[in-house]
Amino acid sequence: MRHALLRVSVVVSMALIVAACQNGAGLDSYIESVRTEISGGSEAAESRVDEAAPEATATADQAGELQSEPKNLAGLPPGSEEINVANVEAESLAAPAPAVVRVALLVPLSGRYARQGSAILNAAQLALFDIGDDQFRLLPFDTGGTSDGAELAVLAALEAGASLLIGPLLREEVLAVAPHAKAANVRIIAFSTDPEVAGSGVYLIGHTSRQQVERVVNYAYLAGHRRFAALAPDTAYGRAVVSQYHKVLVSVGAELTRTAFYSADAADAAEVVRELANYDVRRAALEAEREALMEREDEISVRALTRLESLHTLGEVDFDAILIPDGGSRLRQVVSLVPFYDIEPAKVRLLGLGLWNTPQILAEPTLAGAWYVAPPPAAEGTFRRRYERAYDRLPLRIAELAYDATALAAALGRRDRRADFSDQALTTSRGFFGAAGAFRFMESGLSERGLAVLEVEAGGTVRVIDAPTRGFSAATAN
Predict the structure, then answer these.
(1) Domain at 209-278+317-374, CATH homologous superfamily
(2) Which residues, in sequence order, are CB contacts of 148 under 8 Å at separation 6+?
(3) 195 vs 185: CA distance, rounded Å
(4) CA atoms of 12 and 339, how far apart (whole Å)
């Protein structure tokens, strides 16, 4: 019932803002009317929302109190290893900046995703230290990691005068926030990776799987690979990536010869990889060849039989590259089965996406020689060192995105130019340069990033085998 009421409020919100504008009413009355609707549920529902987002209704001043100072920023002057995020076009605008530029940070500071929210807030403060000026205000609001909390947070942010929203984190939160932001003509830079929520003023700063797939497939094809396979989790993400993979392969003229999905808990992974490798058929072929040779007594047959003693199967798989779009412990479990069922990494190139980019995964011996895509290690390394010095801990992967989003907002809102968070400013065709390299927003709301192709070496080290360009051409983003 609670979710039904919230969905009704989202639908009604557009009509309310139009009516408010026609009647000369301000944004305050619109926000109050929507908040009244949200508060109309049962007492239990209200308690649940308050618990999920205890600070969501804070005022602008109270929101500022949520920030904590990085521990070691005194040792990091802006000129020290600075990672500048600035508009590459750097157009000079003559109009004066507004007295104060307020940008809201909608993040889960409580609840299940509080760890991610804390990393986002930490990185945002680091960017604020580097890029922001004394006219820039970053206002954090707790979403609690729920759609209910996100809706209350966006109302509070708009009431506080936010002219840009950074966050929220999850798809469900973006769906709850977007209608209110659109009604107020405020843009969103969200951390969700679901392309379905992009567009109409919502920009996704995360690494989209589509671009990663295009990057690694194009490189592999140019390197001579023509027959591809896919081994993916049977999840919405896994199936979406395989669909994108198939389309890219068709576009370059390559062939998708085999596709296999394992369950979300990977309980059936051994059976799935065995079938993908055509192991039983190839094993039977080996046994048949051995029996045939044993019936002969000539020297050539004896030598051939000796050579077969070290083999487990006979014949090759019908692909020379395989994409495994997974990460974490599940990937480590699955990838170890690849050589076990006689898919030889020396003959079949393993391909991966940014989910591979962790020390734990890269240390997996089977991945030696594999290719995957990720931001350039040099840029990431600089940011990680600075974050660790400031907060005494290594950053989560999402922290880089939070830095980029905040630094971009601070750069576009500097006092020596008029703050401009319009679609035109955000989708500048030449893009921006951030903690993880070059990126730009497309008119679709998705982002495009300068990704490197990396090869995993023994011991878990990596080397760049195809570097990204530093910026983008002036072609129109779309």
Answers:
(1) Response regulator (3.40.50.2300)
(2) 2, 6, 38, 45, 48, 49, 52, 53, 176
(3) 21
(4) 56
Give domain limits for the chain.
1-45, 74-206+378-450, 209-278+317-374, 283-315
Q: Which fold has domain 74-206+378-450?
A: Rossmann fold (3.40.50)
Question: CA-to-CA distance for 30 and 447, rounded, in angstroms?
Answer: 31
Residue 432 · residue 85 · CB < 8 Å:
yes
Q: How many residues does the chain have?
A: 478
Please check whether residue 142 is in contact with residue 113, taking contact to mean a CB–CB distance below 8 angstroms: no
DSSP E strands: which ranges in 114-156?
136-142
Q: Other C-beta atoms within 10 Å of 186: how many?
A: 21
Pairing type for strands 437-441 and 447-449 reads antiparallel
Contact 468, 437 (CB under 8 A): yes
The pTM score is 0.70
CA Rg value for the chain: 26
Q: How far apart are CA 65 and CA 50, in angstroms?
A: 19
What distance separates the 2 farthest-apart alpha carbons in the chain?
101
Distance CA 122, CA 108 (A): 13
373: three-class secondary structure by DSSP: strand
**pLDDT tens track of the chain, all 478 residues?**
333 333 323 323 333 333 333 333 444 554 454 444 444 433 333 333 333 333 333 333 334 433 334 554 433 333 333 334 434 333 434 445 456 899 999 999 999 999 999 999 999 999 998 888 888 999 999 999 999 999 999 999 999 999 999 999 999 999 999 999 999 999 999 999 888 899 999 999 988 899 999 999 999 999 999 999 999 999 989 999 999 999 999 999 999 999 999 999 999 999 999 999 999 998 888 777 777 777 777 777 677 767 767 667 768 899 999 999 999 999 999 999 999 999 999 999 999 999 999 889 999 999 999 999 998 887 778 888 999 999 999 899 899 999 999 999 998 987 556 789 999 999 988 888 888 778 899 999 999 888 999 999 999 999 999 998 765 655 444 4
Q: How far is CA 127 from CA 141, 425, 445, 449, in A?
A: 18, 19, 22, 19
- Residue identified by tokens 């942010």 is 157
Q: Beta strands of 95-178 (E only): which ranges?
A: 101-107, 136-142, 164-166
Question: What tokens appear for 260 in the block?
Answer: 């296999």
Instruction: Count Cβ atoms within 10 A of the Cβ of residue 307 and give its class: 0-12 exposed, 13-18 middle, 19 or more buried.
Output: exposed
Q: Which residues pair with 452 in a beta bridge?
A: 374
Name the percent of the chain in helix, strand, coil, to the closest 5.
45, 15, 40
Same topology, domains 74-206+378-450 and 209-278+317-374? Answer is yes
